[in-house]
From TrEMBL, chain A:
HAMAP family: Q_tRNA_Tgt. Catalytic subunit of the queuine tRNA-ribosyltransferase (TGT) that catalyzes the base-exchange of a guanine (G) residue with queuine (Q) at position 34 (anticodon wobble position) in tRNAs with GU(N) anticodons (tRNA-Asp, -Asn, -His and -Tyr), resulting in the hypermodified nucleoside queuosine (7-(((4,5-cis-dihydroxy-2-cyclopenten-1-yl)amino)methyl)-7-deazaguanosine). Catalysis occurs through a double-displacement mechanism. The nucleophile active site attacks the C1' of nucleotide 34 to detach the guanine base from the RNA, forming a covalent enzyme-RNA intermediate. PROSITE patterns: WH2 (PS51082). GO terms for molecular function: actin binding; metal ion binding; tRNA-guanosine(34) queuine transglycosylase activity. The keyword Nucleotidyltransferase does not apply. This is Queuine tRNA-ribosyltransferase catalytic subunit 1. Belongs to the queuine tRNA-ribosyltransferase family.
Automatic annotation (TrEMBL), chain B:
Residues 13-409 form the tRNA-guanine(15) transglycosylase-like domain. GO terms for cellular component: mitochondrial outer membrane. It is found in: Cytoplasm; Mitochondrion outer membrane. Heterodimer of a catalytic subunit QTRT1 and an accessory subunit QTRT2. GO terms for biological process: tRNA modification. It is a peripheral membrane protein. The keyword tRNA processing applies. Keywords: Cytoplasm, Membrane, Metal-binding, Mitochondrion, Mitochondrion outer membrane, tRNA processing, Zinc. Residues 300-314 have a biased composition (Basic and acidic residues). The lineage of its organism: Eukaryota, Metazoa, Chordata, Craniata, Vertebrata. This is Queuine tRNA-ribosyltransferase accessory subunit 2. The keyword Membrane applies. It comes from Albula goreensis. Its main location: cytoplasm. Belongs to the queuine tRNA-ribosyltransferase family. QTRT2 subfamily. The gene is QTRT2.
Length: 423, 410
């Protein structure tokens, strides 16, 4: 309560991006070299410091860690999935519980997706028409139509601070007329979503830029969608198995054409290298299930990659996951103990989930601090060197993407005339 | 370690163990319970979530089943299991078998006892068992025991189990004295004897002659032993045991059974029951309040009626018969839109922050948080029940408490 009052007061001081939207973006610093920026994103449930990684709590819970634990890690915004929550427990019940915040007792911000992404993952079950997405409920077999209006109605019931428009999602590896159709339909659906939002004063609606890997289509989508008065934009349809060289070009094209005064959310991105590079390209918000999902398989994220804790090599390794990490797991437990615990109890997963969320949030805090302190390019160089200590092993897409925003890596080759096998 | 008996009421021993642990600076109120863990972790919980609870048992129990496979690691680590598991300030009791895990019968021999870890069976001789204890460095540990008797075991098999266990105890005690790393640890002798009264008595008498720190009553957890028989056997055993040493009963935990076992002279239990309740998606909701608010008790009995009616209905859970009258089945549809805490007034993290409807949702969607929240709630309720039991013994209210606990028996 106090938090939301406070942020409303703060919002008065900063010019809100659109007359009614409950969101304000305060740009604190912009990197003089790259497109990176550090902002305060003021939302109904408190201020979010960007660039930010948003952990995904699909079904109204963060995979075995409590709301208090998540809050203690410094998380200010997390995700819920409209598709899952719409099925179970259903929007009526969450409305009865006074919204998803209350239902899961999460006092900070929530972002909900539109349910549209599940069209790609459940494509066998679905059919897309102008009206919406028709699919069969995996729980009771009933035919369900997810229209833009329905998606927004569910998200209105959930009461999230940021809602996403329903978009027509096609796989990022598809080409041809279907990509253009999906892009154009996403624009029409955006208008229907804007019209359907019952709570524009409490809930922000973000548009999603589509257009596949086709620069012309992306640009057309950007031109059209930025004409709408929405409080923020997401870059969608990427991170679906496309070539990294295509991926970063679409990201940078998008940030080049998005308004400076509105937040940019790159959907589905969550590997450390991608987070750092795409921050350099000007993205503010990221989400991904990867850090929490991989944790449950025993993979702990560290500044030099990851540790597969179930592997025998850690059985007698008595160091913490990362000696420099300040998370509750690293302060108390060794790799060897976690290795042993993975054979016995699910609590092992919780320990690594806590660590991985902490890793992601700490990484983004470091990115932010370096931007504010004007040393972001140096931060990127140090980060990349630690992640890829062997000379010549930088992924070429990252080298190129960073070079495109004037950040050159130590010892990175340009790719031309280089005889490294990795280039 | 000193056991100070404050009073004995209807066979129940209200006391306190002081000087507990190698450091000697812990104490433990009796009757009480030991914190059940596997590999040093309370199932589902991290240090952070566990310590949202206020009144945790002072002694942590770790079964050898979950440790034997880590012998090499613990030996190389060298700091003992407590430090290895991040339990720096806890008193550790290493028991033999995990009361929850299944133990196939027929694997014990004159020379060895088998334990079951994640990688399967591990056969332990006394020497191997003691080498493990040296690496674990517990504050208390039980001697190696052959508790592999069933209700239908022959007299010969039961006698063998008592003999083997006594012989193992003597060997353990010998090695204990000569093991530098176990200085300051207490060995608990194990009373066996299946369901045969004379063997139970013999086992108790013989074990009591040895220099042990306390006693573990083993082999009484079987579902086939009726509480009446269990009480008789325990009473016969405790009569033979010295008053100034604690008696631990493993594998028994239902509140009604706990009360009867306390009356038969048991001091310590383990928190296995709240774990079992958690595993079937249930929450403890029995009343152990000594001064219940009359209004809420009326509501409670009404709720109970509907619960029974519901039971005869369309509940299709496989483990339905396991659900006791002390718990509510949160998977049941009627909690779908129930926005009350699990138990009104409960001080656990779950009840202070969440509602039944949320727990129902987490269970229906198989979310990991369900186990975390239920484990916290069930531990809180269970430990509070023991607190209430101790208060009842102090305030001459045992019969009132018994009535309160047993009234819900169907």
């Amino acid at each position: 309560m106090a938090a939301s009052m406070e942020s409303k007061a703060e919002m008065g001081a900063v010019r809100a991006v659109s007359a009614a939207a409950p969101l304000a973006l305060r740009i604190l610093a912009e990197c003089p070299v790259s497109k990176a920026r550090a902002c305060d994103l003021i939302l109904p449930h408190g201020t979010v410091n960007t660039p930010v990684f948003m952990p995904v709590g699909t079904q109204g819970t963060m995979k075995g860690i409590t709301a208090d634990q998540l809050q203690d890690l410094g998380c200010k915004i997390c995700l819920g999935n409209t598709y899952h929550l719409g099925m179970r427990p259903g929007p009526e019940l969450i409305e009865k519980a006074n919204g998803l915040h209350k239902f899961m007792n999460w006092k900070r911000n929530l972002l909900t997706d539109s349910g549209g992404f599940q069209m790609v993952s459940l494509v066998q079950l679905s059919e897309v028409t102008e009206e919406g997405v028709q699919f069969q409920s995996p729980y009771d077999g009933k035919e369900i139509l997810l229209s833009p209006e329905k998606s927004i109605a569910i998200q209105n019931s959930l009461g999230s601070d940021i809602m996403m428009q329903l978009d027509d999602v096609v796989s990022s590896t598809i080409t041809g007329p279907r990509v253009e159709e999906a892009m154009k339909r996403s624009i029409r659906w955006l208008d229907r979503c804007i019209a359907a939002n019952k709570n524009p004063d409490r809930q922000n609606l973000f548009a999603i830029i589509q257009g596949g890997l086709n620069a012309k289509l992306r640009k057309a989508c950007l031109d059209e969608m930025t004409k709408r008065d929405v409080p923020g934009f997401a870059i969608g349809g990427l991170s679906g198995g496309e070539e990294k060289d295509d991926f970063w070009k679409m990201v940078t094209l998008s940030t080049d054409n998005l308004p400076r005064n509105k937040p940019r959310y790159l959907m589905g991105v969550g590997y450390a290298v991608e987070l750092v590079v795409c921050s350099a390209l000007g993205c503010d918000m990221f989400d991904c299930v990867f850090p929490t999902r991989t944790a449950r398989f025993g993979s702990a994220l560290v500044p030099w990659g990851s540790l597969q804790l179930k592997k025998k090599q850690f059985a007698k390794d008595f160091q913490p996951i990362d000696p420099d990490c300040q998370c509750p797991t690293c302060k108390r437990h060794s790799r060897a103990y976690l290795h042993a615990l993975f054979k016995t109890d699910t609590a092992a997963m919780h320990h690594v989930t806590v660590h991985n969320i902490s890793y992601q949030l700490t990484l983004m805090r470091s990115v932010r601090e370096s931007i504010i302190e004007g040393r972001f390019p140096e931060f990127v160089r140090t980060f990349m060197k630690r992640m890829f200590p062997v000379e010549g092993t930088y992924p070429s897409w990252a080298v190129d993407a960073l070079a495109s925003v004037n950040i050159t890596l130590d010892g990175a080759c340009s790719g031309q005339g280089c005889d490294s096998a990795l280039c | 370690m000193r056991l100070e008996l404050r009073r004995v009421l209807q066979g129940c021993r209200r006391g306190v163990l002081t000087g507990v642990g190698r450091s000697g600076d812990h104490s433990l109120e009796l009757p009480g319970c030991l914190l059940y863990t596997r590999c040093g972790t309370v199932p589902h919980l991290t240090h952070q979530t566990l310590h949202t609870l206020q009144h945790l048992p002072a002694v942590t129990l770790i079964p050898m089943d979950s440790l034997a496979e880590h012998q090499e690691v613990l030996e190389e680590f060298g700091g003992g299991m407590g430090k290895f598991a991040g339990l720096q300030n806890s008193v550790i009791f290493c028991s033999l078998h995990d009361s929850v895990a299944p133990h196939p019968t027929g694997y014990n021999t004159n020379k060895t006892v088998s334990v079951w870890g994640s990688g399967g069976r591990i056969e332990l001789s006394v020497a191997q068992y003691m080498a493990l204890q040296r690496a674990i460095r517990p504050d208390w540990y039980q001697s190696l025991a052959d508790g592999d008797t069933q209700q239908l075991s022959t007299h010969k098999r039961v006698r063998k189990s008592v003999d083997r266990t006594l012989s193992n105890l003597d060997q353990c005690l010998n090695l204990h004295i000569s093991t530098e790393g176990l200085r300051g640890s207490e060995v608990f002798g194990v009373v066996e004897g299946g369901v045969m009264l004379e063997e139970r008595v013999r086992s108790a008498q013989e074990t009591a002659k040895r220099p042990v720190g306390g006693f573990v009553l083993d082999g009484l957890h079987s579902r086939t032993v009726s509480q009446e028989l269990r009480s008789q056997l325990i009473a016969a055993v405790t009569k033979e045991l010295p008053e100034d040493k604690p008696r631990v009963l493993l594998g028994v935990g239902r509140p009604d059974e706990v009360l009867e076992c306390v009356e038969a002279g048991v001091d310590l239990f383990e928190t296995v029951f709240p774990f079992q309740v958690t595993e079937r998606g249930c929450a403890l909701c029995f009343s152990y309040d000594l001064d219940p608010d009359p209004e809420s008790s009326v509501l409670e009995s009404r709720e109970k009626e509907t619960k029974i009616q519901q039971k005869s209905g369309d509940d299709t859970l496989e483990n339905q018969e396991e659900i006791t009258q002390f718990e509510m089945n949160l998977k049941d549809k009627r909690y779908r839109d129930d926005f009350r805490p699990l138990v009104k007034g409960c001080q656990c993290y779950c009840c202070k922050n969440h509602q039944r409807a949320y727990l129902h949702h987490l269970l229906v969607t198989n979310e990991l948080l369900a186990g975390v929240l239920l484990m916290l709630h069930n531990l809180e309720q269970y430990c509070s029940f023991f607190q209430s039991l101790r208060e009842a013994l102090e305030g001459d209210k045992l019969n009132a408490l018994k009535k309160r606990i047993l009234q819900r028996r169907e």
